[in-house]
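In practice, a research group might receive sequence data for several interacting partners and want a quick structural hypothesis before committing to experiments. The following worked case mirrors that situation: the sequences arrive first, and a predicted assembly follows.
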Amino acid sequence: MPTTLERRLPPIAELAVVSVALMLSGGVYMAAHLPRHPPLAPAVGLLAGGGVLTVVAVVLLARIRPFAWATFFLVARWALLAYVVIAGILGFVFIYDHTRGATLAVLVLTLVVFALDVPMIMAFTVARYQDTGTSAPTAPR
Amino acid sequence: MTDLSDHVVTVSREAPPSEAANAQPPHGLEIVPLRGLPIVGLVLVGLVVTIATNELWAIDFFHIVGGGIWTALDLFLGFVIGPILGRLSIPARIEFTTRFMPKMVLIMPTLVICTLAGGWQLARHLGDLNASYSHHGWVVASFIVVAVMAVVALGVLEPANIAVLFELRKPEPKPEIIGRLMRRFIFTAGITGAMQVATLVIMTRLATT
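A structural hypothesis for the assembly, expressed as tokens:
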């Protein structure tokens, strides 16, 4: 059995990082146009691209056997909590600034994909270096 | 940037295996310092209240203080601490890392969200977000710089930081894994440091023209 360093895993983190880059590109595009209503097609395209990459990453991740799932979920749930708070504050700012309708929907979905990608990257990066099967560390403090 | 990485590779190769094997992190290593969470919570509540009350001075305070500390930390980490860290012995690096990185897990995201949310609101109040603003291009450039930094920090730097801490919690941390992740950390800290120079240029342009 290869060691944690030798083991070849699917490019989960790479896919999620590209997805984050697409989400941020969409965010920059929208932010460059606000408070006006920008043409949404480019932002929707970036969102769709990032969403597809995230789904592919999740599917590839789910197929990995064996994997340090306990560690993965431990990191993922705390990171998700943190990034839901961060995305929530950004969402609050846009709503407070009277962003509405389709523009708001695209921004919120972009934040949702972003808030899923980052915990996945963190959790995967940590879990890939853990020994499988006996990976559950003590709870983070 | 390559130089930083090379330094670490050199040091890793020079470090005697026995030294690496003896490098033990302190027991009870905290990945997220619990004592800092109430402070982070207070800061974030303050940020939301500030935005909700449209208090221009407070919005400016969050943006300037958050951005100033964020920029200074990135520059210091990328160009001062990073190269020093690369030249330390593995036990010294581990000792520094176990004390330094958990704090960064709380500090950096808090600074970033305060800077971005405060900056966005400040730009909205000052009219800098309008496409008709004469320096709108510089504002958009700042968005792009932040986006690039975010990809590097969230995609590479922060995960490496957390992974190092998890490795150090093990009874027998693997020096090869720590070395690999630390190289990544130091390299990307250098990149974000360089990007912060661009931020300084953009922000001083916006403030003085």
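Before designing any experiment, note the following. DSSP finds seven helices and no strands in chain B. The longest helix of chain B spans residues 90-126.
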